[in-house]
Amino acid sequence: MKLKSKMKKYIDQAKRAILQSYYCHYLNKPINKSTVFMESRNGNIVADNILILAKEMQNPEYKIKKIYLAVKKDYWETAKKLCETYHIQVNLIPNSSRQYYRAFATAKYLFTDTTFSYNFVKRDGQIIVNTWHGTPIKAMGKFNENERFDIGNVQRSFVMSDFILCQGDCIKERLSEAYMLKNIFPGKFLMSGFPRNSIFSNTEQREALRKLLGWENKSVCIYMPTFRGMSCQNTGRVPANEEQIKYIETSLIELDQKLTDNQLLVIKFHPFLSGKCNIKDLQHVVYWPDVPYLTYDILNCADALITDYSSVMYDFVNANRKIIL
Asked: What is the pLDDT of residues 240-270, one digit of tens each?
């Protein structure tokens, strides 16, 4: 068994080395001025800001001929369905593949909402836009003692960016302080709202999707808490424990008993907690619908939001509906 494990380790190392050689090869190829490379959460998902920007760039005035969207194998079908739902013409490419490194190295414009891989080398002539993925209100970067040792690539990705999308001066200050960008970031903060929040002014889409989901005659409250069960340690990341899960289940049972038939509580947990709570016997509490729509399209269907210190509260403010903290 040990021999098999070692062989797999060496094979994986060899694959990475080969792919790295491809990347180095493509770094010598010309930059394609009409090509865009996009990646969301390192290929683990296609989040709202990135997909909405991809849709916008299909406008002929931008003269973009190809948009490459990098996703990991486990998310491939979901990404494909999302692109079909929103009629977005992109070239899906497997994360960390040969096609990935070719697009990575030769695209003129690159978009991310987190960071690029540690081996990425920005070329002269490439333009990077970092949309980030939330409003930084919790301790992060150097302010989080469990993250301080691991912020190098985040800082590096910010410093390489030409533009960082920002919702206001306070957010600019938070990011700058957390990742020590002052005096080293040569780019520009774009003071603008998140592209994903434009959905909150789309009442037609809200009503159509509520009808599709069967929510049109219900008062819908969405519960989106931040995950609290993880901490960084030398041994890795610690998931939610049984005590936390039991507490959440008990609380949801109590809530379910107090809700009426025209009320619905829709839960979207952090991915680390998703699916771990048993709510199948509850009448008025359901998990997030499994439909090929972006998170903020579903959120726009809500009449109210329950959350804690998750930055989704700042997004939902745009809807001008009730928020329970």
From this structure: 568 878 888 999 999 999 999 999 999 998 7
Q: Which of 18, 191, 210, 9 is nearest to 100 (CA)?
A: 18
Closest CA to 52 of 42, 35, 63, 67: 67
pTM of the model: 0.89
- 237 pLDDT higher than 60: no
Closest to 85 measured CA to CA, from 290, 298, 293: 293
Q: Could you tell me which residues come within 8 angstroms of residue 13 by beta carbon, excluding any fewer than 6 positions away?
A: none
> In whole angstroms, what is the distance from residue 176 CA to residue 188 CA?
12
Highest mean pLDDT among 5-14, 15-24, 50-59, 228-237: 50-59
Grade residue 239 by pLDDT with cuts at 50, 70 and 90: low
Q: How far is CA 163 from the centre of its chain?
A: 18
Question: If you write DSSP's letter for every residue of 133-202 in order, what string do you get?
Answer: SS---S--GGGSTTTGGG-HHHHHHHHH-SEEEESSHHHHHHHHHHTT-TTT--SEEEE---GGGGGGG-
DSSP 121-150: -PPTT-EEEE--SS---S--GGGSTTTGGG
Radius of gyration of the chain (CA): 21
Q: pLDDT tens digits for 134-170?
A: 888 778 899 988 888 889 999 999 999 999 999 889 9
Look at the block and give the residue holding tokens 């040792």: 149
Residue 35: its H or E element: strand 32-39
Is the pLDDT higher at 140 or at 10? 140
Residues 6+ apart with CB under 8 A from 296: 48, 196, 197, 199, 200, 315
Q: Under 8 Å CB-to-CB from 87, ≥6 apart: which residues?
A: 55
What residue type is 118 in one-letter code?
Y
User: Which run of H or E residues covers position 70?
Assistant: strand 66-71
